[in-house]
Write a structure and sequence with these properties.
Four copies of one chain form a homotetramer. By secondary structure, chain A is an alpha/beta fold. Chain A is built from twelve helices and 14 strands. Chain A folds into two domains: 124 residues, Rossmann fold (3-Layer(aba) Sandwich), CATH 3.40.50.720; 163 residues, Dihydrodipicolinate Reductase, domain 2, CATH 3.30.360.10.
């Protein structure tokens, strides 16, 4: 099978390229570009010297239909909304990492992304690809919307207690921390090494575009959840996201009971590793892998539970999850090409 | 005036040494040790070559009384409890950074520190030295208990709204993040560079010994506050603490009103810099200085306020605050020897 | 095939475990320990939760002979010298990463390692495993001595010009820089995060034990080379080694000619990637992979060439190279289990 | 006295501002800009909230003459060449950090900087401000050219042996390593955190514009030195430069003799700290201070000496040295406003 990537020179696209060039079911991975046609990919990423031999191909709807069966969109917000109408979606399956198709309510998209939303018909057709929650739907998707990095860690961390109505619905607070690669490869004052190193910042306070995505997903699990508090921090590291989640429990329960709830919920989820009581995952323990690791504790002093959920933002938070969805959409083993152990230290 | 430091080979003690050797009112700063008598201080800290000429002096109660007027204890927990009974506290003022004298209720000390508490009489006599809240008391202190690093950022971040009863008392959540220097200079697997770098960890979940210190201080400001949720994260950086604080407000208020409340409260506090709306401090913006910087926002969607409070853990979180207290106890200008601009980048 | 690792709880051993558990020809990888028998491996390395199911097995010569066909020694210096006499080396192939068997002249071992050397007979039997230089010998080795991390980068960087006598023999200067993981997992003041972060150190000036290893290898390539200047620096990063090599050329040559020399020399070496003129590899461009990347330039102003050689110290500098040697010793494709693309960023 | 800074929003200018606002002889420090007139300085650098109250003033030659006695140019190359002809240099002393006035031979400037040189008359008038070598000249300078960061560390590291003709003149190799702040605050792909962190790069191989500056200074000390090999590496840290210097000695000498030579040479240089034998400075040991620390060793095996010289690139490598020169030019104590202990850790 041949597949294509739009936006392969970004970090998410590059990670996709790393995974897809080694994927056992993929013969060729074509890299499309709107502006750098003919450029050798290795000139952008010399670490792939002698591995990724492709030159960038011109981004053309017709050509794409003929060349590939699945197209990954690893472009920033806005690109998918613009590109998708030009592609015959009966011929090419789409896996979109841009974020354009995540919010079903387009007015929310406009409000939080400050952009024109994609065609409502495309948005309606897109399946939200969080396989641990809706694998059946993903099997039959032709347009798949890959979840955001923060929402992946946050929703997985909350799903068991949200779905079972164990929490006070208005009590959800997510204190999220991310490495810098999520900001992409584009130069910018905000990602200058000297400003990030030995520094810790909060950003987009009460305004991150991942808030409505998290709320939409939780609301599907539990109608009584409508808003959450979600703040994001920039940590001096390249990869990794941690969501520290605080919830008030409706009824007192032991940490053991809480653990049971999580272990049952994720019994069949290969990529979720719920840790034993007393152990909490650090971000590096999933580095370079597709795992989402969790630890949790109930505090009887306050009646509050703390849940910690970590992912590699470029893997389970982007490219890895996209490949997981690709596998499911094509009837392959969910883990194909993703059986990578985390790199440590 | 001569002063002394016990524990100057630790990071907190070394930072004290940096400040005290340049302090305009101090003639000599004597460094006491229980185990390394005669060793040149620069052998431990070659960055002070030609600056700190002292050799380590033997730790002897009698000698201390004769040599110094104020003694700083920069030792780990347990040391103050053991050392203080041996010193004539009528002759020497004590500034204790060990944490042994912070909790007025000794049973709490035992429970959270897992150690024998200090003599209750000494604990009773010790004044908690958070000058922004109780400068008058500090003026007449002979034993001063210097606040912990996390409590300093957390209590200052909460004091205005706690004192004015603006918050739901059981709603306080503090998500704290710290650099690694707080763990001290002692070698340990947990601070091995390879385990910390490019990694983010949560630790001591629901069990950090700074929890009762924060609760004690908040309870003094507002009798209805008894427990808080407080979690700590280890960030791959050397210096800096950020407390991201979440509180439910009793009544809706604008971010402007919230800002007013903070600005009024800290009008006369030189070392607290409340930022304008929309701006939040990063940890590096107080690096090497004694400032505590704050930013805040109210979210009308959730009825919750987020307050961000940052300090340099070795300065306002330890040595800087100790010198600030020293100044107040001796009738000097509060800022003497502390007018250091943050180092950036 | 079953294989075993001694010292799997160190960083090198852990990296071996990562590679061997995914190696297509290996059924079982048994982890031996002298002191922690029965302990679950994941307790030391939770990132391998649900991946490495082994508990540590007792280190016993008899047992090893029965259980495994190849034994990897990933222990610190001294361990191999002690362990090897207890193992029947007709039954078990040995791949030693400890360094004990690298120096053929045992008096040099004593001088530079400050330890008792291994039995001369074992030392004589051991084949130095730098496959790019002596693959034929490795094929028939029963005891293989895996090169040191610095020597790997340095010798590969010098081999083409040394073998062809293009350089002034006494002019070799290697300025080496390494990440911290080379120092291992043992706690120590020298690897405390706060001492390493935002810091750069030189260490073991004129005294690093890898000096005689480099000299021995170069002398085999060119009898006229007897000593080199080799200094090592500790860089605030976890993985990666760069050797910046300075040599005076005997005769003026263009950078193009120099490049030709390197490209010819490494034509058949899968893991060496010589970069085009004007491009120099950074350490992260080989991160997590078994590549050794090189860049070079001749400076006609000074008559001197600069050669840059980078590896991942835990991969081509240790575990990856050991697996490469394992493949060759067993007649497998050299690259088996090592076709990992570098992880970037 | 009033002084002015052009380019205060860069890192070097910001560091100057930190030093000059606390300098005991300076009443007011005016910040000039060509493009951001009226902007509050703290908007660019919120860490100086309540410390630097200035707004940026318009850059006007007339105005500058009236307002300040000394003007610091902390602009990138090219700015000084353009600005200086517009200022009456009889009224305002100039301290230039741009590099435009360092090379006396303007053809070298063109060749290495790829720019139009400044007027030869201005270049001729400018005094090179490395006070440890030419303090007398600096006293009477009206235009001072502040040395580059790498040349400062390199020239100071070589001066004693160069001046006394102890080294083979063509043997000088300087392997330099720098933190990222030297690249300035401008956004750029090369300084994106994700590209720098956990990475080590060599750059500008054989082409760094500081090469002719180093050669010019060494040639003044020793006519027989004409070229050096000088390579630069980018280290994942913000501040700090280390020059590891390799030289062949003409005659064998002990490390003790070499140390004597350095200690004598720098006997009266407050800011140079020559370390005892066996001890080498790390970059963090001068962090935030104006020191240049050195360590050295002679290796009798190779006849080569290794000299290590470290500075903080923003202090002794830029702003600190500029203030040192300012002090000398105005007859103040050389150390005024610069008695800052390094910040550690």
């Amino acid at each position: 099978m041949n597949v294509g990537i739009v936006g392969a020179t970004g970090y998410g696209g590059n990670e996709l390229n790393r995974l897809l060039t080694k994927h056992p079911k993929i013969e060729k991975c074509i890299l499309y570009t709107s502006s750098e046609e003919g450029k050798a990919y290795r000139d952008s990423y010399p670490h792939l010297t002698e591995i990724s031999h492709e030159s960038l191909a011109s981004l053309d709807g017709k050509r794409i239909e003929e060349e590939v069966e699945t197209l990954f969109l690893a472009s920033p917000p806005g690109a998918a909304a613009e590109l998708l109408p030009k592609i015959n979606r009966n011929k090419v399956k789409i896996i979109d990492l841009s974020g354009d198709l995540r919010l079903k309510d387009s007015s929310l998209y406009e409000q939080w992304y400050k952009r024109q939303p994609a065609d409502q018909e495309i948005v309606d057709q897109a399946v939200y690809g969080l396989a641990e929650l809706n694998k059946q739907e993903i099997k039959y998707a032709t347009i798949l919307s890959n979840p955001g990095c923060f929402p992946t860690a946050s929703i997985l961390g909350l799903a068991p207690v949200a779905a079972q109505s164990l929490i006070e619905e208005s009590s959800v607070i997510i204190d999220a921390k991310t490495g810098v690669s999520g900001a992409g490869r584009k130069p910018g004052a905000a990602v200058n090494y000297s400003e990030i190193n030995e520094n810790l910042k909060i950003y987009k306070v009460n305004g991150h575009q991942h808030i409505p995505e998290i709320e939409q997903a939780l609301n599907l699990l539990n109608k009584n959840i409508s808003t959450v508090t979600f703040q994001t921090h920039l940590v001096p590291m390249t990869r990794g996201i941690m969501a520290t989640i605080y919830v008030d429990l409706k009824e007192e329960m032991s940490s053991e009971q809480l653990l049971d709830c999580y272990q049952s919920f994720y019994r069949d989820s290969y990529f979720v590793r719920v840790r034993p009581l007393g152990e909490f995952p650090s971000t590096k323990e999933v580095y370079g892998s597709n795992y989402c690791d969790m630890g949790l504790a109930y505090d009887e002093r306050t009646g509050r539970a703390t849940i910690v959920s970590v992912i590699d933002n470029l893997m389970k938070g982007a490219a890895g999850q996209a490949v997981q969805n690709f596998n499911i959409m094509n009837g392959y083993e969910e883990t194909l090409g993703l059986e990578l152990a985390p790199l440590f230290p």
